[in-house]
Structure formats: structure tokens, C-alpha cells
């Protein structure tokens, strides 16, 4: 038993740190630190910077542009990225559709899509949830009916994150209406420019636009956009959701947030002294720090086991990472909100700044927005179901 | 980064698990509790035979030179089986002081600890000290080359059966000063030592100890007689680390038997474990257990930290997590069992009681949380 990194891993960490220090735009870093949104251009340009360095898709197999890093190195990379903070790569391309394509797609698809995903030539979004299919995803209704060499897609997706920027969407569509729920679903790639697609942005409670409804009205999709076998889409979706849970703990982001809380609480006066000196506030923060430490160690256990025994199926214990990771993220946004005190109230549209030193205005929106983290990625109740079933055998 | 046990460590785990499986079931434990000392001398001898009592001592001292992971393995096993023999008091605490003692003191005590013939107790708590290790009113006054001890110690684990009591006493300064605390080896049968033993909530034993003009020689002092708190802090941190591991073992078993129970118990014609409300409670128990395990591992690793502040902070953080997890797992385990959970007749209640008491040993979750908060947290 040994919790330390090897000298080689320490050297690697130093390299990664130096790279972020030299390559992350200072304004972008400041935005992330202040919990403000970054623009589409900033997201794309960062992905290209990473890709140029060869780190755009570190976890992919080497033949498709991956780095061949060990599980521990992947962990170090993401941890350092989150805590710097640098923009997190958008998951829909590199973590979701990419792995599905290189695992189940044909050669033509691999050749065309994978390099474009790695360089973010295309912005991808995820067409899974529907108005009637949330946690019960397999009850989805969007249909893709075969007609000659095409599918005709009809239906509606919802909660589609950043679809307003998207060039492509990967969709679960029902291709066999007579089959049992989970069978009869296919995994289809659809060009967002296709006629018949309408995107309706949904304003979130923070006032920003992050999610959308996507409507499909007789959308014609070439049959070669099917990934893998027809009616096997559910298997691919399960594979993808397993990938999504990896690193959902977001320990590095929470570390950066604790740094922000300490910085703000040190210059916010309360009762004639900095808020950080208030024992009750300090205890609440320390309490969350301890939970974060326990989460970090739990994640290291999962990573070390993966590095040693190979990457098999996702460890059901990783459901712990989702539950605790999301709870801690929510608690920290709550503590940030507490720091703002009365300055939580002013509402400014689109990240506008109130004064030159307006640190407070993005915080209440972030708190509102972060209620999403216990909902998405398989709600925390779904994660408890997974633990009860897969781990405890209930 | 590696969380697996080595081959030798796995063998140690198998051997202690094997021993306890064959000799420490629920009914056997009840018999041990009823023995004269409140635990089984026969089991203690078996621990000695298996080398468990010599684990942390150097080979020069007749031990096995094992590290914190080995102690963790033993403590987890003791926790899983609710073992009441004085391992913490004798080997971790008593042994912890002696490992830092002089060659003569080691030679006088360690062979007896290792072969099972000597047990120790640590008498530190006082009526007003609560969890503050430096709050010491018991006095040690210079007397020729030795000392005279006066005062009253309370709730010393296994203090009524130990042959030797390790006592903290003030040699200089005010009651709460960090400087001026000495650590003394006092024979339980020394003149002026009055010991009153009693049962504890979790089936173990403890004692209140009065010291009236107890004379000890200079050879009774462990370490610097005016700066003993340095050693006390380290040894008590070792005990906290061991308690974390014991709690993990107890929680592991509590989760296991609770899950087994709700799989079997039928109401409304089905196993109650098929109800989602209970499944989610069980899933939360599992999460509490595993996060506690993570912190117990970290605490054991911290045992070798050379930065003593970092070591103390890490152990405190672990004790907070363990205290909270243990409370949730203990309470939930009883709750999932229903009525039988609040009786003496079933195992779960005993795990609940032990888990509850662990939080009250060497600082509860709130105490350690306040320590961490006061020093600016643990995330950098």
C-alpha cells in the first residue's frame, strides 16, 4: 500500500502544470475561477491547443490519437486541469461519441469523425433524453424509419446541452417499434444542418442558455450514419454512460472552488472581521474539505485498481464518486453563495459586470445552476439503485 | 499509487481472520465478556502465539518490525469481530509509548507484552480534561531522583486489569500548558494507587484511578519529563489511526449483516430489501463505509509522515470522517433491523454500540473538525 506518485509521475505532473501555466489564456482562467461562462470560441481554441500538444484525447487508444498514459497519469492530467483551472474538454465529443465510434463504428466512420472530434472541428451534442424519457431512458419514442438508403427521423429530444452551438448530434432512435423496450433502439449520427431540425433554447434558472429542445420533423439521415448494428444502440448507450461516470467526481474543480471561497471569505468583512475568521463558517468549510479528501482518496482507489487490474467494466463503486462528487460541488456553491451575503441579490444578464470589481454576481447563478449535478449523468437516486443492485445484491 | 496488500500482509489478514472465525462468534464473545478480566486470557495467548502482540516492535526488541498497514489489518479484523481484548491499550498505546522509550525500559516491558504476560493501560483523561491531551492537573513532584504523583485519572481503558499504567502528570506549568507534562510508568500495585474498574457501554472495561502520594523512580519517566506531550500526541494519533481501522472493520460487518437481514426479512409477502427506501439507505451505508475506509487508509499512511503537523491534521480529518460514517452506519444498521435491532440478542446492536463509543475515544468528530477549522483546512 502506497499513496505516493512515482518520481516519473511527479515529473509528469510538473510538465502538465507548466503546460497549463504557459498555455491557458489568463482571462479564461479568471473566468473559470470566478465561475463565469466561457465562449464557444474559447472552448474550441483550448481544445485545439490541447490537440496540438497531443493531449486532446488522452484516454483514447493510441492509434486514434490517444497518449497511452497510465490510469494514474490520466488522473493526474485531469486533476491538474480542473484545479488550475483550465477549461474541461467538452464531454460530448471526446468522452461520449468518440469512444462509441472507435469501439463500435466502421472504418469509414472512424477515419472521418475521430480526427474531427479530437480537433473539435465539429461541436457535438447528445440526443438521449426526451420529455417522456429521463431516468427511464429506454422508454424513448423518437423514431427512425428506414426508407431506402435513409432513415426518416421524427420526434423530440430535450435537455440537450449546448445544442445551440452544435454541428452534430448523436441520437438514440427507435428503429423497431415492435421490439421490447431496450431492443429496437439504434445509435445514429445526425448533421444539425439537416432540414427539419429545430432547436429551441431553454433558459435555465441561472438566466443562461445551456440546454435546448431539439425537434425532428421528417429529418432525412443517410443510413451510413448508423453506428454499429441496427437495434443495438442500447448497448452502446450503456457503454457510453459508463464512460461518463469516469471522473464525474470532479475533485480538482472542487479544490479550485475551495481556493476561491477562501480568497473571497478573506476579504469579505462580517462583524468587523474577515468572514474566514468566523468559526462557524470555517467549520462548515473544513467539514466539506474533509469530505472532499475522502472523495479524492476513494477516486484514487478506483484509479489505482483500474491501473493495476485493467479497465474492465466500470466499477459499480464509481457510483459513490457521482453521489459524493455532486453533493460536494453543490455544498461548495452553497458556501460561495453564503460568502456573497447581500451581494447575492443583483442580477446581471449574460455575465455583465456591475462594477470593475464585481466578484459576486456570477455566484448565485452558479449556485442555482449547480442543482443540475445531482440530476444529470444518472440522478443520484439512479446511482443508489446501481449500488443497491450491483454491489449489495438487493 | 497502490492500495493492494502485499502477499505477506494478505497472509496476516487470513491468519487473524481464521483465528477469530474459529474462536470469536457471538456466543463465544458473550462468554469472554463474563470472564474475570472481562476478556479472554486464552484468546490473548493465541494472539501472542500468532505474533500479533509483537507486530509493531523492532526486531531488535523481539518484535516483527511491522508497519502501520499491518496494525490496520489487525484492527480492522478486531472491529469486524467486536474483539474486546486490550490490543489498543496494550500494543498500540502502551507499545506506542514503549517504542519511544529508553533501551532499559524497552527491555523491561516489551518481552512481556510480546509473549502476552504483560498488559498495559493509558491513564490520561481527567474529570475536566475532556479531549484536550495537554489539560493535566495530576501532579508529579520531584522527590529525590524520582517523583511523587498525586491526582485522579478517569476512564482508562482496561485500567483494572493492566499490570502497568502509563500516566500523564504535570511536572511544571499551569493545568493547560503544553510544556510541563511528563509520562510515567506506574505499576498497578504501587502503594497509593487506587483502581476502580467498571464495564463500558460496548462490553469492554475501563477504570478510574486515584493516585495518592505514589512514589516512582527516575526510571519510570518516558522521554523528556517536561516535554512528554510531544510523545503523547504522537502515540494518541497512532491510537486514533487504529480506532479508524477498527471502526472500518465494524462498519463493514454492520453493513454486511444489515444487507443480509433485509434480504431475508419478509413483510407484505416480499423481502423488505426489495423496497427502494431501504435499498437507498443501504446504498448510503455503503457510501459511508467506503469513504471512511478511504480516510482510514490515508490515516495509516500518515503514520509515517515526518511532518508532525501534517500527520496530526490528516489523522484528525480521518477521525471526523470515521465519526460521521460510524454514526450513520450504526444508526441505520439498527433501523434496518427493526425491533430486533434494539435488543441485546442480536449482533447489530453491539456493532452500533462499539461504533458509537469509538467516536468518544480520543476526540469526537466535532472536536477534530474544530481543530482542522482552526488551522485553515486540509485542502491546499
Automatic annotation (TrEMBL), chain A:
Residue span, Acyl-CoA oxidase/dehydrogenase middle domain: 125-219
Molecular function GO terms recorded: pimeloyl-CoA dehydrogenase activity
Keyword Ion transport: no
EC numbers for this chain: 1.3.1.62
Keywords: FAD, Flavoprotein, Oxidoreductase
SUPFAM superfamilies: Acyl-CoA dehydrogenase C-terminal domain-like, Acyl-CoA dehydrogenase NM domain-like
Domain Acyl-CoA dehydrogenase/oxidase C-terminal: 231-392
Cofactor: FAD
Domain annotation Acyl-CoA dehydrogenase/oxidase N-terminal: ranges: 6-120
Superkingdom of the source species: Bacteria
Enzyme class: oxidoreductase
Pfam family, one: Acyl-CoA_dh_M
Family: Belongs to the acyl-CoA dehydrogenase family.
Protein known as: Pimeloyl-CoA dehydrogenase large subunit
Native species: Bradyrhizobium diversitatis
Automatic annotation (TrEMBL), chain B:
Pfam families found in the cross-reference section: Acyl-CoA_dh_1, Acyl-CoA_dh_M, Acyl-CoA_dh_N
InterPro entries, sorted: Acyl-CoA_Oxase/DH_mid-dom, Acyl-CoA_Oxase/DH_mid-dom_sf, AcylCo_DH-like_C, AcylCo_DH/oxidase_C, AcylCoA_DH/ox_N, AcylCoA_DH/ox_N_sf, AcylCoA_DH/oxidase_NM_dom_sf
CDD domains to which the protein is assigned, alphabetical: ACAD
Gene3D superfamilies: Acyl-CoA dehydrogenase/oxidase, N-terminal domain, Butyryl-CoA Dehydrogenase, subunit A, domain 2, Butyryl-CoA Dehydrogenase, subunit A, domain 3
Required cofactor names: FAD
Top-level taxon of origin: Bacteria
PANTHER family the record matches: ACYL-COA DEHYDROGENASE, ACYL-COA DEHYDROGENASE FADE28
The protein's name: Acyl-CoA dehydrogenase family protein
Amino acid at each position: 500500500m502506497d499513496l505516493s506518485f512515482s518520481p516519473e509521475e511527479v515529473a509528469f505532473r510538473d510538465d502538465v502544470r507548466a503546460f497549463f501555466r504557459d498555455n491557458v489564456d489568463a482571462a479564461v482562467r479568471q473566468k473559470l475561477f470566478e465561475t463565469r461562462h466561457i465562449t464557444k470560441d474559447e472552448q474550441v481554441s483550448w481544445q485545439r491547443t490541447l490537440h496540438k500538444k497531443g493531449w486532446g484525447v488522452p484516454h483514447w487508444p493510441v492509434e486514434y490519437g490517444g497518449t497511452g498514459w497510465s490510469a494514474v497519469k490520466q488522473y493526474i492530467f485531469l486533476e491538474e486541469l480542473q484545479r488550475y483551472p483550465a477549461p474541461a474538454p467538452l464531454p460530448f465529443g471526446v468522452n461520449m461519441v468518440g469512444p462509441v465510434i472507435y469501439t463500435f463504428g466502421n472504418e469509414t466512420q472512424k477515419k472521418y469523425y475521430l480526427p474531427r472530434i479530437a480537433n473539435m472541428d465539429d461541436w457535438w451534442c447528445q440526443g438521449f433524453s426526451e420529455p417522456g424519457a429521463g431516468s427511464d431512458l429506454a422508454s424513448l419514442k423518437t423514431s427512425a424509419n428506414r426508407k431506402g438508403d435513409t432513415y426518416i427521423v421524427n420526434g423530440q429530444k430535450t435537455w440537450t446541452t449546448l445544442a445551440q452551438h452544435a454541428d452534430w448530434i448523436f441520437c438514440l432512435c427507435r428503429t423497431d417499434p415492435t421490439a421490447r423496450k431496450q431492443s429496437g433502439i439504434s445509435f445514429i449520427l445526425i448533421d444539425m444542418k439537416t432540414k427539419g431540425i429545430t432547436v429551441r433554447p431553454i433558459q435555465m434558472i441561472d438566466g443562461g442558455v445551456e440546454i435546448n429542445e431539439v425537434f425532428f420533423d421528417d429529418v432525412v439521415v443517410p443510413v451510413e450514419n448508423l453506428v454499429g448494428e441496427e437495434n443495438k444502440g442500447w448497448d452502446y448507450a450503456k457503454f457510453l454512460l459508463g464512460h461518463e461516470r469516469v471522473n464525474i467526481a470532479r475533485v480538482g474543480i472542487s479544490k479550485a472552488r475551495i481556493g476561491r471561497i477562501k480568497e473571497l471569505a478573506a476579504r469579505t468583512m462580517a462583524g468587523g472581521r474577515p468572514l474566514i475568521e468566523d468559526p462557524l463558517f470555517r467549520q462548515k468549510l473544513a467539514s466539506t474539505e474533509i469530505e472532499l479528501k475522502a472523495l479524492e482518496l476513494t477516486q484514487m482507489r478506483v484509479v489505482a485498481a483500474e491501473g493495476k487490474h485493467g479497465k474492465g467494466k466500470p466499477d459499480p463503486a464509481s457510483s459513490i464518486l457521482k453521489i459524493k462528487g455532486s453533493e460536494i460541488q453543490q455544498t461548495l456553491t452553497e458556501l460561495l453563495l453564503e460568502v456573497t451575503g447581500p451581494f447575492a441579490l443583483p442580477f446581471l444578464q449574460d455575465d455583465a459586470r456591475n462594477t470593475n470589481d464585481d466578484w459576486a454576481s456570477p455566484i448565485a447563478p452558479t449556485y442555482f445552476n449547480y442543482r443540475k449535478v445531482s440530476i444529470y449523468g444518472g440522478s443520484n437516486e439512479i446511482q443508489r439503485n446501481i449500488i443497491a443492485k450491483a454491489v449489495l445484491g438487493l | 499509487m497502490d492500495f493492494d496488500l502485499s502477499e505477506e500482509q494478505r497472509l496476516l489478514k487470513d491468519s487473524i481472520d481464521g483465528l477469530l472465525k474459529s474462536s470469536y462468534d457471538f456466543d463465544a464473545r458473550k462468554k469472554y465478556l463474563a470472564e474475570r478480566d472481562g476478556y479472554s486470557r486464552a484468546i490473548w495467548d493465541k494472539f501472542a502465539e500468532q505474533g500479533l502482540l509483537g507486530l509493531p516492535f523492532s526486531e531488535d526488541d523481539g518484535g516483527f518490525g511491522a508497519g502501520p498497514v499491518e496494525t490496520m489489518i489487525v484492527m480492522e479484523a478486531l472491529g469486524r469481530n467486536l474483539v474486546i481484548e486490550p490490543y489498543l491499550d496494550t500494543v498500540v498505546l502502551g507499545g506506542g509509548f514503549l517504542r519511544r522509550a529508553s533501551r532499559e525500559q524497552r527491555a523491561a516491558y516489551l518481552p512481556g507484552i510480546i509473549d502476552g504476560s504483560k498488559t498495559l493501560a493509558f491513564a490520561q483523561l481527567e474529570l475536566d480534561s475532556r479531549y484536550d491531551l495537554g489539560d493535566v492537573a495530576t501532579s508529579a513532584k520531584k522527590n529525590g531522583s524520582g517523583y511523587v504523583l498525586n491526582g485522579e485519572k478517569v476512564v482508562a481503558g482496561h485500567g483494572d486489569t493492566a499490570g502497568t499504567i502509563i500516566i500523564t502528570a504535570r511536572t511544571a506549568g499551569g493545568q493547560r500548558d503544553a510544556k510541563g507534562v511528563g509520562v510515567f510508568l506506574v505499576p498497578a500495585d504501587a502503594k497509593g494507587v487506587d483502581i476502580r474498574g467498571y464495564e463500558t457501554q460496548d462490553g469492554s472495561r475501563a477504570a478510574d484511578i486515584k493516585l495518592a502520594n505514589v512514589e516512582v523512580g527516575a526510571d519510570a519517566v518516558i522521554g523528556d519529563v517536561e516535554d512528554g506531550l510531544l510523545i503523547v500526541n504522537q502515540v494518541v494519533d497512532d491510537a486514533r489511526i487504529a480506532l479508524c481501522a477498527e471502526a472500518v472493520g465494524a462498519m463493514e460487518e454492520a453493513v454486511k449483516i444489515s444487507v443480509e437481514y433485509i434480504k431475508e426479512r419478509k413483510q407484505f409477502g416480499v423481502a423488505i430489501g426489495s423496497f427502494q427506501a431501504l435499498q437507498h439507505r443501504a446504498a448510503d451505508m455503503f457510501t459511508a463505509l467506503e469513504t471512511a475506509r478511504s480516510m482510514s487508509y490515508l490515516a495509516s499512511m500518515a503514520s509515517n509522515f515526518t511532518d508532525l503537523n501534517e500527520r496530526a491534521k490528516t489523522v484528525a480529518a480521518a477521525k471526523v470522517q470515521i465519526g460521521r460514517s460510524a454514526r450513520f452506519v450504526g444508526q441505520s444498521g439498527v433501523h434496518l433491523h427493526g425491533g430486533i435491532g434494539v435488543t441485546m440478542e442480536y449482533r447489530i446492536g453491539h456493532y452500533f454500540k462499539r461504533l458509537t463509543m469509538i467516536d468518544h475515544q480520543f476526540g469526537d468528530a466535532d472536536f477534530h473538525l474544530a481543530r482542522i477549522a482552526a488551522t485553515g483546512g486540509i485542502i491546499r
